[in-house]
Amino acid sequence: YGKNTIKFLRLHREGKKHFVKEVEVCAHLRLTSPQEYLEGNNSLVIPTDTIKNIVLVLAKKNGIPSLEEFAIDICNHFMTTFCQVAYVKAYVQEVPWQRLHEDGAPHIHSFICVPDGIRFCEAEQCRNGPLIVFAGIKDLKLMKTTQSGFEGFYKNEHTTLPERHDRILCGELFCKWSYGECKDFDFNCIWKKIRECILEAFAGPPDCGEYSPSYQKTVNCIQMFVLSRVSQVQVIEVVLNNTFYNVVDMKNLGLTNDKEVLVPVEAPYGSCACTLGRKKFFEV
What we know:
The structure is a single chain. The chain has helices at 35-38, 48-62, 67-81, 187-203, 215-229, 279-283; strands at 2-14, 17-31, 85-94, 97-102, 105-113, 118-126, 131-144, 169-181, 235-247, 262-265, 271-277. By secondary structure, it is an alpha+beta fold. It folds into two domains: 2-129, Urate Oxidase; 141-281, Roll (Urate Oxidase), CATH 3.10.270. The strands form two sheets. Strands 1, 2, 3, 6, 7, 8, 9, 10 and 11 form a nine-stranded antiparallel sheet that branches. It is globular and about 75 Å long. The mean pLDDT is 94.
């Protein structure tokens, strides 16, 4: 049980310059006894309102240097404060505020919300067990207008999809990774590096791009690139929910439409998912 959707803004001031972190937290506990479920005995139950207040107090006292460190703070607090807690899980996601720039100069106290992917993390721990930390990015919308196709796929009497060697590749990406044994990582730096790897693997070189023969291959390329560049990542999951576009037939309007006006196919849409990890991690 626990408290979901604990939303708040943490404002940090350094002189005239302000810093903001707006987050949403879900904190869940499992107690050493199920007596509240089986017997209606609430003597061990930490009220969900108390859970909410603890999260807010931790934000006030410790700040939010990174989402991961804040999630770890939550886990550590419940494990060290309440002997009846057997398991704790903290999920934290961030509202994507970015500092506003005017004529190239960063503003000291103004921000803009930029929907270019939502950062999130999870930390969980069992009593006498290791602390496990996950991080990720979701709702990241990506598009490449060429260098994508889908050919040579299996066909039978139900196949109506034509082969394409030049199409728009567009999708909403969810990516989640685990760090394995949690150490003193610079979580902010690692997250930014992984995000850069995702974008680079998806797009290819800026002057020419890179051909994608399928959404599945793109998913795998992203995972392989992250694992090759970021040694702290042990397992990475990527889900790419596809958005397809159809070329509008403008012959009745007396116009030739050479893939210049397209409409998205709202539903149904495809989805590709894969989890990839280092061999040594799966051997353990």
